[in-house]
Structure formats: structure tokens, C-alpha cells
Amino acid sequence: EGIKQLLAKHDLQLKTISSHLIGQAVCDQIDERHKGILPDYIWGDGDPEGVRQRAAEELILTAKAAKKLGVNTVVGFTGSPIWHLLYAFPPFPESTIEEGYNDFASRFIPILDEYQKLGVRFALEVHPTEIAFDTLSARKALEALDHHPAFGFNYDPSHLGYQGVDYVDFIYEFSDRIFHVHMKDVYWSDTPKQVGVFGGHIPFGDPRRFWNFRSVGRGKINFEEIIRALNTIGYQGPLSIEWEDSAMNRDQGARESCEFTKRIDFEISTHAFDAFFSKD
Fold first, then answer.
1. Which tens digit of pLDDT belongs to each residue from 129-149?
2. How many domains does the chain have?
3. What pTM did the predictor assign?
4. Structural domain contains residue 77
5. Domain holding 54: CATH number?
6. Gyration radius from the chain CA atoms
7. Has residue 279 been placed in a domain?
């Protein structure tokens, strides 16, 4: 109730809540990196399976919290038991990938069943390091879950564009599964760079990288086509600005990204532009 009162005091609305870090631990291969992002009560003694089980339980509690707040969408990550096998050598059998999707399904279907009971949806942010990181892997994730009605996507074009994935087509491919939208931009170079699409072992913002996140409207994402696609599929949810730009002052970036988003968004037409020429 305190959160609701605080929001009302400032005339704010809450449309979704995030559980990225907890969700990451549900399917990941757990190691010391996770200790740095998880609460102590989730990390516990660090036993990998114990961490995964506690993360799954916390993700269900997150849905219950969302329900109490009047929110019907939780955005987050799933982690992945097979991301580390991307571009792998020596090669491995295709069955290994299928086992990874089966493991994901066995862990997430019980979570999603609880979400469905609560009337809450889980929106996976399609993103490198997750079980779904492009169009094909997103489709495989849905298939692994037998198209569970509580599972969909947080659409973020910045994680698709630099990979070479058709990020507008993604909207049409999963028109009934776009539960939430991030307005986030990214720039990728027109010419070869010292560090390629994998990002290497250098920090974000380094000019030697092939790609870097940028303030909304300053990268290469075609938001005009995104808005038109979202309107076409009937998306009615929020346009949530996720701002990352290592080279820019965040206060300026927040202001201009909000202004850009408001300017580029528009309501869908209720009739064809030439309808007035008809005699009917």
C-alpha cells in the first residue's frame, strides 16, 4: 500500500515490475559472477541447484507482488543453460541444444503456471545470454513451453539490431506475445572495427567496438517503423525508455529520450487515408 500511495502522491502509474537479475539465475550455469548480482538469501551457500531453486521461488513471489500492485506484467531474464555453447568448438551434437531448451522448459513451466493462476504474465527480454536472443531462438523457447499463455516477450530492438536480426519483423512474428516494449537505441559501425559484434573484453563505450548503446534517437534503430508495426499489431502497452549511453550525461539523455519518444509515437488511424473519396 505504501508504494501505491507514493505513486498516487506524484501522479505516477506503475505498468510493470522487473526481475532481471533473479530470473537470470533460474536457468544459468551458476558461478561466482552470480554472487555479485543476487541477494544473499538467493545465493545462500552458492550450491548451483540451490541457487536456481531459490531464484525460481523468488520469481513466483515477484508475480504475487505484481498482483498486489495491480500490475499484470513482470519483465525479466531467464538465463540459459546453453548460451555458453554459442559459436562453440569443438562442435557438439544438436541434441545438446534440445536438452538445454528442455531444461529451460522444466524450470519455467511451473513458474508460468503460477503466473497464470495470478493473472500475471512473464515477459522475457530477448537478449544475448538468454534462452531467446534472436527470432529463431525466441520461437524455439515458445515451442519448448508449448506456447504457454503466460509467457511472452519484452521487445527491445537494441539487442537485435547490431546482431543483424530484423527487429521490425520480430514484432510481426510474435504479434500476440509482445507484452512490453523498451525504447532503447544502439549504434553499429558502417565500417570494420578492432572489436567485432561479440563485443570482446573491453567495456561499453569504447570507440574500438563495432557497436555501442546510444541515447534514444541517436543510434541506428528505426523507431518510426517500430511504432508503425506496434500500432499494426494493436499493442496498447507502455513505451518504456531504457537509457544507456556511456558518452552522454544521463540527465540530458533522459530528457531528450522522453521528448523523442513522445514525438515519434502516434495513434493509429481508424480509417484509410483515401476513405473520404468513397461515395459509400
1. 999 999 999 999 999 999 999
2. 1
3. 0.94
4. yes
5. 3.20.20.150
6. 20
7. no
